[in-house]
Amino acid sequence: MANFAIMGFGTVGSGVAEVLRMNGESIAQKLGEPLNLKYILDVRDLSATPYAKQAVKDFAVLENDPELDVVVESIGGAKVALEFTRRALLAGKHVVTSNKELVATHGRELLAIAKEKNVNYLFEASVGGGIPVLRPLFQCLAGNQIQEIVGILNGTTNYILTRMVKGGVTFAEALKEAQSKGYAEANPAADVEGLDAGRKICILSDLAWGREVRPEAISIQGISHLDLRDVDIASRAGYRVKLLGRALRLEDGRQAAYVAPHLVPADCPIAPVDDVFNAIMIRGNAVGDVMFYGRGAGDLPTASAVMGDVLDALTHRNRRRDLGWSESAPLIDQERELPLYWYLRGDFAQPEGSEKLAEGAYIVGPLSAQAAKELAEQVKAAALMPVLR
Amino acid sequence: MANFAIMGFGTVGSGVAEVLRMNGESIAQKLGEPLNLKYILDVRDLSATPYAKQAVKDFAVLENDPELDVVVESIGGAKVALEFTRRALLAGKHVVTSNKELVATHGRELLAIAKEKNVNYLFEASVGGGIPVLRPLFQCLAGNQIQEIVGILNGTTNYILTRMVKGGVTFAEALKEAQSKGYAEANPAADVEGLDAGRKICILSDLAWGREVRPEAISIQGISHLDLRDVDIASRAGYRVKLLGRALRLEDGRQAAYVAPHLVPADCPIAPVDDVFNAIMIRGNAVGDVMFYGRGAGDLPTASAVMGDVLDALTHRNRRRDLGWSESAPLIDQERELPLYWYLRGDFAQPEGSEKLAEGAYIVGPLSAQAAKELAEQVKAAALMPVLR
Cis before residue A132, ω within 30 degrees of 0? Predict the structure, then answer.
């Protein structure tokens, strides 16, 4: 029998318990032994739930149980979660998480501890919810040099954009809908301002190239200032507006990563991905473009990814996966050095060499962000947005 | 240093050598040691190629080299490839292949030998070319009960269908184009009659549910009889015609698998997948629908998947993956027991309860294949095709 614990019994944590309840039999068959949920660590009172027997309030119980193999961290944030993850790894437990904030900001340190203690720290669920993407990236595509990663990494903002495009509602209205459906939190800043997508593109970049990219080091722009007019113009001109995280490795080995709303051509496989779905496209120098698609959030999809990692950790109990990344990736000065195409809208004459999408709406480029902003200022443009090419 | 050999230096085999040439440095970094291509086994004369030094003609050289870790089998077919794979596994070598015919027809036996000898037999490249799909299925989604797999599994037929839809050309003309572009072989039967897709859906089914489904046990229908009229009617009514492999597990545990051209609703993520691209959708009871997309064939994409497996085998040198499946899956009598929706075209009045797509073109159902065929015969229908719902 293999024993695991869940720390934090919110959406993801209770989803993991539910997946075990639903699929315990097939999981035991695949594992070759039963999987037992031994502890649930939460500050809440679980005595009225079916999990009264597993409930504990003291982390030391988990830390000191030599029969506990794996700990699922679904506390969230980077305070208590960081302390308990550190201590669990140091106690020789494998740790599995969906906590993108913690992985993006402390992943390097935690993976180093995991390596030292010869245990696994796995986090497939931290990017793309239930979509298998991190393991395919570092394992199936290991024969490639990864050139670019671009994706819809946040379900909340994709739902809002879908409503703006298909329902013709403003950002504020779409956000209210998302909140009433439980897709957006009362304080939606981390989603709509792009920080959640930023953490995820950093994790993808860390894994793809083995050097740490910190969320605070990259340009992150959300969708809260998006004007319905630009969504309309884009739709009519054969584009969709999507919030994309994007990471690139240039030929000279330097890297770039950023998050911004983009115009995406309708024939790009990412363009039709709507509602709370995510899609991540990875370009390798042998495989070309591959894309991974599915539900990027939600209790059971995220729990599916967590459970996959729990099973992987247990089948590798005495042999850790060689995961990790070193310090500070060589980032370019993105404002100045990354040429992109740009969508510009405003009351000005068509810029020379630009492509006209509609009256007063043009695509210019390639230009650096700095040059594009200068141009936008010069012509008093009302909107400026990169275009995926 | 890790040593591997390539058996069969055709498209895939030479692609694997090329990927090593392109990415040897990053591969060595990931592996922690250099990867050395020690032998290339082929009947052809390679003395004028850059691989003269590696060329051997006698399989026994590979079999008897204790320093050879992994053998890539890219011979194809199920004769010589079967014998050499068997012998390589028995000699304690890990074997990696892209050979769907061999895996679909002898995978069970070969995996049993691999288990006995504690080595890996890996075949990610046998389904979906470079697209990571088998490893995500059996590893990342291990916490799920898989309910259904459906996909565009053959690039040649998808290219032909794309040309029929977008170019308005007949099947025969599109096939000729595909042949001139090197996408279809001189004898295209295995592709256009659906056998290649059939082998792949069997491998996916074997892995998803652990019971063998043999290609000769399932209904396989290709696209050679497809009429341009039906492609047109479908397009106008918001559908795309796609050759799909489909495998299901019913609630009672019994299974079904088949290959047939389908009408696919335009808003299904599979519908816009065109040209030689493949896409495989997997439904799990926790994750919902996830989709994997990319180039389903070609030298470098396929070699990417092969190389991923080679690296996986080498990092698991003393610990095999627990892969395998047992005998004969409990298949339903699909002709009678699987209710589907059907597209019917002909010169007859609209059947009761049907949906009209165009004059003389309707969707009826749910009906078993047998009942649909009886109805088609009764009304003298000119076309009958399942509809994906």
Answer: no
Please give the angle made by the CA atoms of B344, B204 and B102, to the nearest 5 degrees. 110
The residue type at B223: I
* Residues of B in Cβ contact (< 8 Å) with A139: 132, 135, 308, 311-312
Exposed, middle or buried: residue A154 (CB in 10 Å: 0-12, 13-18, 19+)?
buried
| Consecutive 10-residue averages of pLDDT for chain B (389 residues) | 97 97 96 96 95 97 98 97 98 97 97 95 96 96 97 96 94 94 87 97 97 96 95 95 97 96 94 95 98 93 97 82 86 94 96 95 96 96 96
Please give the interface size between A and B, counted as residue pairs whose CB atoms are below 8 Å apart. Answer: 181
DSSP helix/strand/coil, A114: helix
Evaluate the CA torsion angle B314, B315, B316, B322 in order and state its sign: negative
Asked whether the beta carbons of B342 and B364 are under 8 A apart, the reply is yes
AA identity, residue B369? A
Closest CA to B265 of A307, A343, A52, A272: A272
Of the candidates B130, B145, B287, which has its C-beta nearest A130's C-beta? B287
DSSP code per residue over B278-302: EEEEEEETTTEEEEEEEE-SSHHHH
A7: phi then psi, degrees, rounded to nearest 5:
-105, 115
In A, which residues are within 8 Å of B72 by CB distance?
A: none
* Average of per-residue pLDDT across A369-384: 96
**Is residue B288 within 8 angstroms of chain A, CB to CB?**
yes
Helix ranges restricted to H, A4-48? 11-31
Three-state secondary structure string covering B80-96: HHHHHHHHHHHCCCEEE
Which of B304, B310, B318, B319 should be substituted to probe chain A, the one whose Cβ sees the most A Cβ atoms within 10 Å?
B304
Residue A267: both structure tokens together? 């024939």
Q: ipTM for the complex?
A: 0.95
**B132 to A136: CB separation less than 8 angstroms, yes or no:** yes
A292/B312 Cα distance (integer angstroms): 21
CB atoms closer than 10 angstroms to residue B22: 17
Residue A320 has pLDDT above 80, yes or no: no
Cis bond before residue B366 (omega within 30° of 0):
yes
